[in-house]
Amino acid sequence: MPLSAYDLTGRSAFVTGAASGIGRASAVLLAEAGATVHCADRDETGLRRTYEVITR
């Protein structure tokens, strides 16, 4: 079952490694499901890109 089938409104998630790959994909899916997503990674540029994807 796809994650988007879940309503995560009002829930929080913390994703490490969110600048690329599986971490970015997880952060995007969680945000699409309504969660407030907190992201961390050493790659600041990649994190900014993830932020742009989530907030677009």
From TrEMBL:
MF-aspect GO terms: oxidoreductase activity
Transmembrane segments: none
InterPro entries for this protein: NAD(P)-bd_dom_sf, SDR_DHRS6-like, SDR_fam
Pfam families membership: adh_short
Keywords: Oxidoreductase
Entries under SUPFAM superfamilies matching the protein: NAD(P)-binding Rossmann-fold domains
Sequence similarity: Belongs to the short-chain dehydrogenases/reductases (SDR) family.
Record-given protein name: SDR family NAD(P)-dependent oxidoreductase
Organism, as annotated: Streptomyces sp. SID12501
